[in-house]
Write the structure tokens for this entry.
Amino acid sequence: MNKLHTTAITQMQAISIGQIIMDDSNYLTLWGQVQQNNVWYSCDFVTTYEVMNTMLRYNQEKHHHDAVLMTIVKKLEDMRRVPDIIDLEAELGDAVVFDNMTFHMRRPCLQQDSNWEAYADEECYYIERVIPLPTVPTLPPAARTDISGKMEQCIQLLADTYDLYLGFIEIELEDEAARVKAGLENDKKFSMAYYAWQLHTSNLNDL
């Protein structure tokens, strides 16, 4: 397999690999599954050693990076037949899942007369490249506590403004005047203050 014709790019975000097929070309064939809409479907993949190495690097902290890499290297050194197979499920106990990256895939094509036509429906893809998903930084406990404290302060301030509004109502100010004096003339702010006051009152009643 020295040349591969493919269709337009399709993007996926999770695949699993159970077996790797190696031959004397620059391509690897991967037997496994692809995840679409949270459902896993059987699927084969074709890719290069470079892309496979990138997949392992992006998956380094999660799934068997060193074990898979060393298995491929050992097979290349000792390969006595072509093609040959690496059974990851047998060697590692399970298929290897790659799910922290976006896969740019194309469907392989076969030549029909003078045209190239996709084959195997959606059961085979050529993995052209992979891109890591952006990581969401985890806030340290101190930062999370600080944010939580500030939220409590905001809720308390809003509840206090609604209390102030109620105080003006009690001294028989008109609703509009009471809202202006309490700084709640904005309808959205008035609603937020009301819900904050409800939450604050509910918490007090639970004590």
